[in-house]
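Sequence in, structure out. First:
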Amino acid sequence: MLAIERRNEILERLQREKRVVVSELSQHYQVTEETIRRDLEKLEHDGLVVKSYGGAVLNEQNIVGLPFDVRKNQCVAEKQKIAGLVEGLVREGEAVMLDVSSTAVYIARELKKKEKLTVITNSVEIIVELYDMPKWTVISTGGTVREKSFALWGPHTDEVLSSYHVDKAIISCKGLDLGNGITDYVEQDASSKRMMLRAAKERILVADYTKFDTTAFTKVTDWAFITKIVTDRKPAKKWLDEFERLRIECIYPS
């Protein structure tokens, strides 16, 4: 196993358990404790963990979030459920914007059931995912590549997004709160998501159950800009009541 793969697995374990122990990781990966300490030092340097006596804990104050290749492998079943529901909302021939979220990658895979679509995205991962769809039009926004995120961002990205008018914008987020609205970790991502919402007739928010009652670093938008929300399980009554009040259609598995 490569060191980067081991570190990504350690991050996934921290997401589940919040704390790891050097001796246990050493035995699990069959490497020396010194190797594990170097892994944890690298993760601490990246701002993802805080080393503690004999191990490490997840850095809950990290406003950037986990690397894309880690996030993509989290809550996979939930993301697949959401993707299946979204596929049923998109019609043949429509123009759709997809953001740089890991959930959007699963949606792109489901949408490949369609014969013809136009997809505009600032996600390098989605562009690669859709390379084998000859009847589709796949448009990259261009922009600056952000390290570890497979995201294109910056003034050029937002300018390109603002130049199109599409049927649907499909965005995700890192936090949903009744008072604080829809939030994300990275300001550049939040800006691109806002541009997508402004460009679309129908504005769809996708979020698994872990995002509810959570507030991330920066605001994306208020609830008034969302027309539909798709999630992996039935939300609590307070959420359903609020969605009904705001006339937001909430879609979840029956």
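Second:
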Amino acid sequence: MKIPITVIILTFNEEKNITDCLNSIYGLVDEIIIIDSYSTDKTIEIVKEYDLQYHQHPFLNYSAQRNWAFDNVPIKHNWILNIDADHRLTEELASELKLLFEDDIDLSINGFLASRKTIFMGKWIKYGGHYPTYHAILFRKGYGYCEERLYDQHFKVEGTVKKLKGDVIDLITESLTSFTLRHNKWSDLEALEQFSGTLNNNSKLIKGSLNGNPIQKRRFFKNIYDNFPLFVRPLVYFFVRYFLRLGFLDGKRGLIFHFLQCFWFRFLIDAKLYELKKNASEKHLR
């Protein structure tokens, strides 16, 4: 018997990923919805081979696309599972969800967190504080939404959330070229948000809390990081992740990942933020 869950997947030119993603949930859940951003490859042709519904909607940003789906697409079930095309549910997580939905879920619980198991260049990145990393992937309809951020968005759930033991496999790169191109784009968004200060008084964002759930704890430490001086903070962050949190145990591919993700990407954000501030200061002096 299929689990009474609606899965929502965002796609854009995901012909290399979508089949394995769908196969990890097809036959497990009762409803699958694809929200496609007008793919130009074979994504839609592949999707049409499955018994599911798909919609096409212009992509503004990740948050807007997710929240548009919640507000505009007919969703059959009261529980929504959110994954991306480069995600796969592990067998452990699939079994756990089956067991979880054998009985009614306590009405006091509105969401569930699962950790992502990052696969980079074919290797599981296990150290450096990168695992476990929890995300709110499953929540009751009407009790969750995606933060309105340009980058580093999380799902915010109203009410109590519980942790699941199973993982979501996250294949974060097809190649170093795609990895660096995506992170270059994301650094633009993060630098712009930090420069504009739009995150400072946004009540819809997840608030950092050392005593909160894993997402709130991570946001707490991210807020501390944001208050460190530019160019110093990526150095400190890489040192903590790679040495103090044993990222070096991930080997050569781990070195590439931790250096690019913990230092290069965040140094690039700082450089772009510095450029924005410099340009704004020069414009003000004219």
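Remark: The radius of gyration is 20 Å.
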